[in-house]
Amino acid sequence: MRGHQPVPVITVDGPSGAGKGTLSHLLADALGWHFLDSGALYRVTGYACVLEGVAWDDHPSVVRVARHLEVAFTADSAGEVCVAYKGLDVSRDIRTEQGARGASTVAVIPAVRQALLQRQREFRQLPGLVADGRDMGTEVFPDATLKIFLTASAQERAQRRYLQLLEKGENVSLARLLEDIEERDARDSSRTVSPLIPAEDAMVIDSSRLPISDVFSAVMKAARERGLA
Ligand code: DC
Fold it and tell me: Could you identify which of 50, 90, 133, 144 might form a hypothetical disulfide with 9, taking C-beta atoms 3.0 to 4.6 angstroms apart as the criterion?
């Protein structure tokens, strides 16, 4: 691109289970843009600690793991994203409830967030980036062209997660999932660094009763209005 025009970014933030991943993938596919799954970086950090024998509450060691995180994202032949830590495929391990707990626990450590900041910004490449996370619009890409904050009730998100896990063959209780989601929401929104809150200029969408196709249409309309599509 000539001059100093920045690479365009669409940020998609919100609590887990609101449909951010699905929406972000649809947007990246439709626009032909890159995709950043920032949650995966936090998940790999938490899981790498397990593999390296580092306790999540041993902050100096967790920070060391985050700073030297050897992580690679590749697409397999079916187009599925594969996440590798030190060459080991951890795609499935990081998507478990333990993976989610680890991510949420290490994500409260300011120096871990700092260590992952530059790594996330490196995903910003032409022709554009769709960034999925919690603080994409507030901290990582504050100059994004379009910021979405996608939310849904905890009950609805627990139900969706329950169905997803059942499909994967994981045996979980809906009540326990709801409890986990509420606990994680509380931790994510109350932490002092980068709490989960919508950016001031974000478009807030509640997907509790909206099919993802409607959410996608609304966001594409907003993208077109900003000259992104
Ligand atoms: O999006 P996810 O469920 O994969 O995220 C897992 C955890 O990582 C989530 O509980 C909070 C943390 N996270 C974060 O703090 N900041 C981000 N940008 C993305 C995820």
Answer: 144
